[in-house]
Design brief:
about 25% strand, alpha/beta, globular, two-stranded antiparallel sheet, seven-stranded mixed β-sheet
Length: about 170
């Protein structure tokens, strides 16, 4: 099953999923929370490893979108982590935070999103959660053919939907 976790920019999507993921088994993937300096970083949910996402003007190998500058090697590492997870995952949740402007341009975590969608479509024991800001929702649904995905706005609805889907599968 594919879930889209959506909300406005800076509405707490990542922090909600971070808290939610700590309470559940079989959670894998990448979240992009902010540190105390309000800088985004990548967090591998399986290992707990973190690495810097944002670049500065002195970094050489960067990706830019709008006013933001990101470390390309960090996106490469995030894609490697997600790719390795997709190869091994046979049940549980794969979270990819986020499907944003870069991914709509076939950059950033695009490759991992394609692999995650493919895995979730092939294996019903794998649930993919894609974090997508509300303003990009329609573009993302159209580009990645996510019209059958369940759109969720908060973790309460996510838990409710998961409970309903689990009970429906058992019937």
């Amino acid at each position: 099953m594919i879930y889209i976790f959506t909300g406005e920019i800076n509405s707490g999507k990542t922090n909600s999923l971070l808290k939610w993921s700590k309470e559940k088994p079989y959670i894998f993937g990448i979240l992009t929370p902010k540190n105390e300096k309000r800088e985004r970083y990548f967090l591998d949910l399986n290992s707990g490893i973190t690495f810097k996402m944002e670049a500065n003007e002195f970094d050489v190998n960067t990706i830019s979108v709008g006013p933001y500058l990101f470390k390309k090697e960090s996106f490469d590492l995030a894609n490697q982590i997600l790719g390795n997870t997709v190869k091994k995952l046979n049940k549980g949740f794969l979270i990819i935070d986020e499907l944003g402007k870069l991914e709509l341009l076939d950059s950033g975590l695009y490759k991992s999103i394609i692999e995650g969608i493919s895995l979730a479509n092939k294996n019903e024991a794998v649930n993919l959660i894609l974090v997508i800001r509300h303003s990009l929702l329609n573009d993302a649904i159209n580009k990645f053919k996510l019209d059958k995905a369940i759109v969720i706005n908060n973790t309460i609805d996510l838990n409710r939907t998961l409970w309903t889907n689990q009970n429906t599968k058992q019937d």
